[in-house]
Amino acid sequence: MFICLGPSSADLDYHEIGRSISTLMSNPEFHGIAYRAEGRKELLSAINEFLDSSIVLPPGNWDRNSLLPFEDLKAKSDAIRRRQSRVALPKITADQKALLDSDGDGDGWKKKDDPLRRTKIPFGGLYNDIKRRFPHYLSDFRDGIDGQCLAAAIFMYFAALSGAITFGGLMADKTNNLVGISETLIATSLSGIAFALLSGQPLVIVGATGPLLLFDESLYTFCLTADIDYLTMRVFIGIWLLIIALMVSFFEGSVLVKLFTRFTEEIFASLISLLYIVESVMKICKIYYKHPMMSLMSYAHEYCLAVNDTMPCSFTTVLSLVENSTVSPLLNTTARNFTTGLETALLEKANQNSNSSGHSNSTGMSTYFEPPVQNEPNTALFCTILALGTFFIAYYLRQFRNSKFLGRSARRALGDFGVPIAIVLMVGLDYFVPGVYTEKLKVPEGLSPSAPDVRGWIIPPTGLERSFPVWVGFASVVPALLVYILLFMETHISELI
To answer: Domain Bicarbonate transporter-like transmembrane spans what residues (predicted)?
Structure first.
């Protein structure tokens, strides 16, 4: 679909522009270039190539009969080309057929094996992968020292790290912190190292994805409903995954990847992008729900209720309470400073009440009362700025790659590292604005599970909190088969791309 936007008062015939585009798109060569073009320059080059291979007639009253000779010449040239190709086919001798059917391309190179052809022997595809990759195994390590490879490795590191942290945080929310950032980081690291050392396609990034997040969320909900230990069931699903993967490799099931179409690849790519967008919007909506934008009196009322629901909460009372406290210099026109002073003043008031009741402690007033994080001013708007800022910086740095500024290497570097640059800039902005509360990811200190009080790193197959039914271990083959289909399609689609 071509959409042309322009002023209504311009002396242009937009219908003629549409007819011109229709003529261009009817040409197969231009049609293919137009769909692959990423910028204005490529489209202009395609138009110039189209004009070079076209017959351009000057303006005038051309009769259709006068154009017939051009059509006759074109038809005759096509007929001559077809006749010559038919005459050339019988000239292929038996010796030439033998040369064409033999291994090689005529220049001394052996004919490449088709990796998607069945060998009809057990683990034949695995054997061919090992045979094809083994001669290049050492060179892969030597080539990694190259500067371009190091830049690509750094980019892949940030891609894997950001994905692991993002999906780890989402999994922690979906699974009540049974699987969190620590688990996704360690799993991404170990599986990435093993996959890079032993796989036939070491450039594939292994990690948590959107479909697997949806699967884990559904599995956790099912386990809660059926009163089944979620982590133990995950152990049995992993065991069945290993068995299914060995069976597929035994029967060369990887050849089914040739049935995947471009439509299948685009579905998975759209699903992952859509999941990122939906989760980001939902997270911002939750922030607006927890920290809604309210008037100054509403903030004061919330802090009053946090300390004592019987404390008078009129605006005059609140102002006098802050002015008579030790934090009165903080009181100014900003809402953040007002609530900061109000919170401290209410803490003093609460501790005075506690001391008058005979409760004293020398450790400080925060011992008596530490209110939970109430509605914080500017939090919702600031989080919106951080989210949109990250997106627009990454997007425009990606577009900057096709611009005319700086050198080619600088543009490519900024385009490749647009996402980590955007994340670092927005995290720095959040760090240098300490007056606004923003929710941070909860990462355990050191190498510890996300919920150390619930479990350790080793999950017993017999169950954590309750005995695990034996029949559930065998029934886990059904979800294992479903998740293997996801893994199979995601891995092979990535290898095809």
So the answer is: 122-497
9-65 per-position pLDDT tens digit: 666 677 777 777 787 787 777 777 777 777 777 778 877 777 766 666 666 666 666
Res 370 pLDDT > 80: no
C-alpha torsion sign, points 7, 11, 15, 18: negative
CB-CB contact of 434 with 158 (8 Å): no
Angle separating helix axes 28-36 and 14-25, nearest 10 degrees = 100
Provide the strand spans (E) within 269-379: none
Mean pLDDT value of segment 351-378 = 48
Interior CA angle at 206 toward 439 and 409, to 5°?
85
Using an 8 Å Cβ cutoff, are 423 and 390 in contact?
yes
131-143 average pLDDT score: 78
Q: Tell me how far CA of residue 65 lies from CA of 23, 72, 111, 425, 471, in angstroms.
A: 21, 11, 53, 67, 83
Residue holding tokens 């910086």? 393
Beta-carbon contacts of 50 under 8 Å, excluding residues fewer than 6 positions away, are 24, 27, 29, 30
- Residues contacting residue 448 through CB under 8 Å, at least 6 positions apart: 182
| Distance from the first to the final alpha carbon of the chain | 25
Rounded Cα–Cα distance for residues 85 and 100 (Å): 18
Which parts of 368-444 fold into alpha helices (H)?
379-400, 408-416, 418-431
**Cβ(339)–Cβ(299) under 8 Å?**
yes
Structure tokens at 122: 């057990």
- Give the DSSP H/E element, type plus range, for residue 276: helix 262-290
Rg (CA), the chain: 33
Q: Say how many residues make up the chain.
A: 497
Check: CB of residue 296 under 8 Å from CB of residue 318.
Answer: no
The answer to whether 382 and 438 are in contact (CB under 8 A) is yes
Res 274 pLDDT > 80: yes
Mean of the per-residue pLDDT values of the chain: 72
Determine the angle formed by the axes of helices 408-416 and 418-431, rounding to 10 degrees.
60
Lowest mean pLDDT, pick from 79-88, 145-154, 279-288: 79-88
The secondary structure of 73-129 as a DSSP string is HHHHHHHHHHHHHHHHGGG--HHHHHHHHSSS-SSSPPPPP-TTS--SSTTHHHHHH
Read off the amino acid at residue 122: P
